[in-house]
Amino acid sequence: MLVAAAVCPCPPLLVPEVAAGAAPELDAARDACLDAVGVLAASRPDLLVVVGPGDSRSAGAYSAGAHGSLRGVGVDLDVTLGDALRSADAASDRPLPQSLTVGGWLLRRARWTGAPVEGLAVAEGATAEECAEAGRSVARRAERVALLVMGDGSACRTLKAPGYLDERAAAFDVRATEALGSADPDALAALDVTLAHELKASGRAPWQLLGGAARGAGLAGRLLYEDAPYGVGYTVAAWS
After folding, report:
1. Which of 3.40.830.10, 3.40.50.300, 3.40.50.1820, 3.30.450.40 is the CATH number of 2-239?
2. How does DSSP assign 182-215, residue by residue?
3. Residue 128 in contact with residue 186, Cβ under 8 Å?
């Protein structure tokens, strides 16, 4: 059963070594993410699953000890899923997608020493029902399950945004942020899959997985951060 969730954005810029001189611009987002992870720790889960978007090659489950790297964005930094918990003989896995790598970095930053950590990358093209069913399956994995859900909102909020300006982007992000801040599974399920794709909102599938996992759990949400630096919607929320 799902007992807690933290929702965080997943840009590599969240990692100060990647952001370099611009690192202070995301200090508030980083602090909010660490606060959200603290809610996960306080829930004392039996299992923590880091969920994030992946492409057709990276989608799927990742075991504790799987590795990710930020070399692709110019930083010689490796991340192991569940760093503090990994045994010397932990099985190697295929490389983590970027979203789970950033999630693993957050857990390292928060000095996670709680439950075992696994990963799950959701295909960005997954339907709303496929995401919800995956969420229900994850919630049944243990008596007390927590999720660290990584994903960004629209990437079309300004002219200089990665997806250029789309006038629909702000309204989409408002709906998503309200749903995440209020822990509303119905509102998450109602997010338009096609529109999310057109707005390059990578968080849509992980958020809808969260909505499926939370059905019947009676969790309350709290919005910790919302902004659109660099023209991309970033939301941090905690469910408990």
Report:
1. 3.40.830.10
2. TT-HHHHHTS-HHHHHHTT-TTHHHHHHHHHHHT
3. no
Token pair belonging to 15: 């990692």
Domain-wise residue ranges, the chain: 2-239
Query: For residue range 12-33, what is the model confidence (pLDDT) as tens digits?
Result: 999 998 888 877 889 999 999 9
The per-residue pLDDT for range 62-118, each reduced to its tens digit, is 999 899 999 988 888 899 897 644 433 344 558 999 999 999 999 999 999 889 999
How far apart (Å, rounded) are the C-alpha atoms in residues 107 and 145? 16
Q: What's the pTM?
A: 0.94
Helices 98-109 and 27-42 pack at an angle, to 10 degrees, of: 80
Q: Which amino acid is at 188?
A: L
Contact yes or no for 210/237 (Cβ under 8 A) = no
